[in-house]
Each structure stands twice: as C-alpha cells, then as structure tokens.
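Reply to thread "Modeling small-molecule complexes from scratch"

Following up on the discussion above, here's a worked example others can learn from. I took a protein sequence and the SMILES for zinc ion and predicted the complex. Inputs first:
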Amino acid sequence: MKAIRWHPPSYDIRVERIAVPEIQQPDDAIVKVTLAALCGSDLHIYRGHGGVDKIHTCGHEFIGEIVSLGSSYGSHAEGRPKLYSNLKVGDKVVSPFTVNCGECHVCRLGYTARCPEGALFGTPVLEGGQAQYVRVPKAGGTLFNLSNPSTWSTTLSNEEKERALTGLADTSLLMLADILPTGVFAALQAINHPKVQPTITGRPWPLCLSSGTGTTGNEVPFTTDDRTLTLAIIGLGPVGICASVSLLDALATRRLPFRIVAIDPIESRREKMKAVYAAIGESGKGSGQFIVHSIEDAKLIVKDWTGGIGCTAVLEVVGNTSALTLAYDLVQAFGVITSVGVHGEPPLPFTGRQAYNKNVSFDFGRCPARAMFPMAFDLLVKRQDVFGGVGRPESLIDKLVDFDSAAESYRAFEKGEVGKVIFDPWK
Ligand SMILES: [Zn+2]
Ligand SMILES: [Zn+2]
C-alpha cells in the first residue's frame, strides 16, 4: 500500500510502498482510509522537534471503512464497549487521534486522552493514518461507528443523527478526528471553570459555586462589566477557529454577555477567522463582540475593555512559550488559561511566584477526543455553514490533494502558505 512516511532527522517526507497492516491483537481493527488530514501537530515531528528518530507513517486524523476485525469482535463480547459486539466489516468509522481502551478507570471517567493503554497515531509507537490502510488497536474502545449512530448518544435523537449523517461530507466528518473536539474542549474548559463563575452567575466567589441564594450580607451589586466575559483566543489555525466557533456557540446558547478578541500574528489566518465569523449564522454568534487582531492591537483592546484588569479566561491554541507569555499577560488575576497546543521542551515562561501572584489557573493538555466526540458532532451538524465546505474563504479545509503532493503539502503547510490539507490516498 502507499503511505506517507517521515524520515529523520527532519523535513523529509516520502511516499513509500509498505505492507498492508494486519491484525496483531484480538482488539485490533484494520481500517481502509478514505481521507486523512494534515494537522499542525504533525509539524512537531516534521521539523525534527518531536524527539523521534524512527521512520514511521505520519498522520493522526483519518476516516475510513472497516476491512478486518480481530477475534474479540462478535456476540461473545458482552460487557465490553458496545462496538466489540456490533462493529462490522464495511462500517464507516472515524477515529480520535489517540487510541484508548474505553474500559479502564481513566476511560470510564471520560479522560480518554490519558488511557494507560493509549497511543497517538503517526508516531514511532503507532503507525499513522496517512496511508491506504491503518491498524487501530483497542478499536472497540476507540472508534466511532458512523454507520450506526445508536452507538453514541448526543442531544440529537437517532433519527436526527441519521438524517444529519446523510448530509455530511467526509471532508467535514474528518474534523471529528481532532480539530473540532479539541476546539470544543478548549472552549468548554474555559467557560465551565469555577473561577469564571462569578461573571457567569453574578454572584461573588465563592457563593457562585453554591446553588443557594445566600449572601454575605455585604455585597456591592455587580456592574454590567462585571457580568461580561472578556475572553481571548490565541492562535487562529484550524483548532483556534474551531475553538472560536465553539465558544461563540456556547455563549450564544447560554445567552451570556461577552467580548472576545481572537489573536494571530499571521494576516492570512486573521482573514480566515474573519471570513468564518462572517459565515456563522445568527444563532451561533450570540450578542457579544468578536474581533480579530494582531498581538499588539489585542493587548491594547483588552486593556481598553477592562481598564487594565485583563481577560476572564484565555484560550491558548498554539503550544509555544511566546503564546503562553501572551496568555499570562492578558489574563486577569483569578483568571483561567486553557492550553490545548502541544508544548515542546522549553520550560514554562513564568515562575511559580508569577503564577502565585496572579492566582492563575492553568488547564493544560491533550483533548480526550473520544469523550468529546458527541459534543463535537452536534456542533458539526449545527455549523455546516462553516464546517461544510472545502476551498472557500470561510472553509477550514483549503485543499483536497493526492499522495503525490505530500512532500510539497507538508512544506507549504509548515510555511503557512496553505491552511488545512486533506489527502485522498486513492486518488
Ligand atoms: Zn491533529
Ligand atoms: Zn483506558
């Protein structure tokens, strides 16, 4: 089969013919890949920053069809995750970017990104999805069966899910592998954080955490400004855009007052964000302000909005120290920074004393995409105005290409010359 392979030490992408993967463990499935995406986090290894030196197949975002199942699958799989008993050859599936067992303590709690048996596709430990076929370990705990939507629950009924699925293009469904759940995760963590609750509930800390109506007896009423969420999103790549759309949707649904500044130093990304915002239907925008700025302008606008106090919460969707420094500078005392970017080796750009002095909360780390899938699916269905197309100014996906364009696509994507690229392994 054809596969896109990374060669050490860096910037070396080749399309090679390798053996089609086979079932190795009883819980494995083999998926014939219909589409695979290129992602910002593929660039860490591409640039040689991933701490890896082994040739491997790239990619962790793919959608496809089951062609082979291990011996664990079938009617004898009672008591295990449902897919072990009802996944069939021919089913259309999308995979989260990491494998998880779905059965351990960590998975049961929904923290599927950190399953002790987990692994990330497109690394030396697990061959990636930028290939014609991919082996999915623990597939019954990992995959989503798009042919059988009764195997996951959302706010939509089974009929609604089925109707929605017939209208969704594979290029759109592929966003469920990583970028959309990760964006939803960043937004969800920010607006559900305990420290954001005084602004949301209109009750001071810590009364905002209790459902009662008790008061301290000595409160000064909140102003309109006190009730307005001031939020910043740093990094407007595909995940940053998904986070923005998700945040706007959540704020609109809950009818919360807000002002958001979305920040990126690269003009083409800011233009994409503006085009996406313009395309979002009224129901997904809410009544707050949403503006897109460069870094310096963003600092000034937050200062202006808050009188120098800072943002209620900052979503950091880049994964480097300069983005984190900006997040720290923008956030208010008792503020929240949620960071979903993949951070490399450099130490965090602030000291314990700085963290103490701002009472700042940090939420770091990988999205549990398996657990976030249902929420992401609902948003995908709702926001086809921005998640539905390819190659339009407001599309998150810029191009659908064949494997022959792999090396050039990696090069152009790394240089910021092109946005999200999808590969068709069979073209
Ligand atoms: Zn990704
Ligand atoms: Zn697990």
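What I'd highlight from this example: The chain has 16 helices and 18 strands. Residues 100-101, 103-104, 106-107, 115, 117 surround zinc ion (ligand 2) (CB under 6 Å). Questions welcome below.
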